[in-house]
């Protein structure tokens, strides 16, 4: 059995905040799978230790000591951490090039969905072929009803998911285990992770898991963390009126940076809540546990972690109370380590400004 060890370059974790406040980069959903799950599947049956970048998407793992993507080393098989670090930092290698993608910043995550989902679907169906039936170019788990549902293009609907009538799924898409897509929804090139409830128009967006958007409203080119709730009537802008490139707040840069992308919606950290009829501006980053309402509309570029609508900060005891209550609704009990991470983040941000940018 392979041992997987993730090689972090300097500043990588900061480039994926706020999504890495409570988890590693490798635990972020980057298609059907998280980065880590995809590597686990690719190394099944292999022996040895693999040092791999936590932000790389691969759909093949060649039998080679060193693996490269686009001229960069992404994985090294070795039992020596010192050798792995030397190989990564030296950069030169004789190993094979494979098709893949290195994701460098959080705002790229919605844009990788089409390619990632197509490759991930092939991997998942090859593992569990007997569980799925073919529906045009898509694969549906045998437990999934499809009455009055239009499915266009490639995709995968997983075990226990419910797609209610008068819904259109346009691929590449993924609907995760035990997730619900409510009637009259239009889902385009998106990933709905496990145990989510969604409705309305959803385009080129990733819902990590345990997140809700149960009412009408548009969200596009966005990334939604875990335990997020988006209220009824919330609308997200993913394109500037000037059709120019979108700027977003970067924790790593400590300010607003140009993504170089024409389409970028919102990026909502874990446990954030968005109230009804909120208007979210193009490229808005919302920190973990932030509470945003229509009074904050249109939203600023950056809503800080633990922000409370009206320019206040959420109390730590209240944040922990809400986390326990929300997670209990899905029969999940937060571990002491998880609660400790929340406290650590709160302590680190409590000294900073609470005002949005």
Mean pLDDT: 95
Biggest sheet, in brief?
Answer: 10 strands, mixed
Content of β-strand? 25-35%
The H-level CATH homologous superfamily of the largest domain, spelled out, is Hexapeptide repeat proteins
Helix share bin:
10-25%
Strand order of the largest sheet: 7-8-10-13-16-19-22-27-30-32
**H/I helix tally:** 6
Strands, count: 34
CATH C-level of the largest domain: Mainly Beta
Q: Look at the helices and sheets and give the structural class.
A: alpha/beta
| Uncertain spans | none
For the record, the count of structural domains works out to 2
According to CATH, the fold-level topology of the largest domain is: UDP N-Acetylglucosamine Acyltransferase, domain 1
Question: What's the architecture of the largest domain in CATH terms?
Answer: 3 Solenoid
How many angstroms separate the termini?
48 Å
Please state the overall shape, judged from the principal axes of the Cα atoms.
globular
Q: Mind telling me the C-alpha Rg?
A: 20 Å
Description:
By secondary structure, the protein is α/β, with parallel strands linked by helices. The chain has two domains: 3-104, no CATH class; 109-349, 3 Solenoid (UDP N-Acetylglucosamine Acyltransferase, domain 1), CATH 2.160.10. The protein is 18% helix and 28% strand. It has six helices and 34 strands. The strands form nine sheets. A ten-stranded mixed β-sheet has the order 7-8-10-13-16-19-22-27-30-32, covered by helices on one side. Strands 9-12-15-18-21 form a five-stranded parallel β-sheet, with no helix packed on it. A hairpin with a 2-residue loop joins strand 4 and strand 5.
């Amino acid at each position: 059995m392979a041992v997987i060890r993730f090689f972090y370059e300097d500043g990588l974790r900061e480039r994926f905040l706020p999504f890495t406040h409570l988890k590693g980069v490798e635990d972020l959903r980057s298609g059907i799978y998280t980065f880590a799950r995809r590597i686990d599947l690719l190394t099944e049956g292999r022996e040895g230790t693999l040092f791999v970048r936590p932000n790389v998407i691969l759909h093949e793992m060649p039998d080679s000591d060193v693996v490269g993507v686009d001229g960069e080393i992404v994985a090294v098989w070795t039992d020596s951490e010192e050798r792995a670090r030397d190989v990564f930092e030296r950069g030169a290698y004789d190993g094979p090039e494979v098709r893949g993608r290195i994701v460098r910043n959080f705002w790229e995550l919605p844009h990788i969905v089409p390619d990632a989902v197509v490759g991930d679907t092939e991997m998942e169906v090859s593992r569990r072929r007997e569980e799925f039936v073919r529906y045009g170019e898509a694969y549906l788990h045998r437990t999934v009803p499809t009455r009055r549902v239009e499915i266009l293009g490639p995709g995968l609907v997983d075990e226990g998911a419910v797609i209610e009538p008068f819904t259109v799924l346009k691929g590449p898409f993924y609907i995760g285990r035990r997730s619900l897509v409510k009637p009259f929804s239009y889902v385009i090139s998106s990933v709905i992770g496990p145990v989510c409830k969604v409705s309305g128009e959803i385009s080129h967006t990733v819902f990590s898991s345990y997140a809700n958007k149960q009412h009408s409203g548009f969200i596009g080119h966005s990334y939604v963390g875990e335990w997020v709730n988006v209220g009824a009537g919330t609308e997200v802008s993913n394109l500037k009126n000037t059709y120019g490139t979108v700027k977003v707040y970067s924790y790593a840069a400590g300010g607003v940076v140009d993504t170089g992308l024409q389409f970028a919606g919102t990026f909502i950290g874990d446990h954030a809540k968005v109230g009804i009829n909120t208007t979210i501006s193009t490229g808005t980053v919302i920190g973990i546990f932030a509470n945003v309402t229509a009074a904050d509309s249109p939203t600023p570029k950056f809503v800080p972690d633990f922000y409370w609508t009206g320019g206040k900060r959420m109390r730590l005891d209240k944040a922990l109370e809400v986390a326990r209550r929300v997670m209990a609704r899905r029969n999940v009990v937060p571990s002491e380590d998880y609660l400790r991470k929340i406290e650590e983040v709160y302590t680190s941000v409590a000294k900073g400004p609470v005002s949005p940018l």
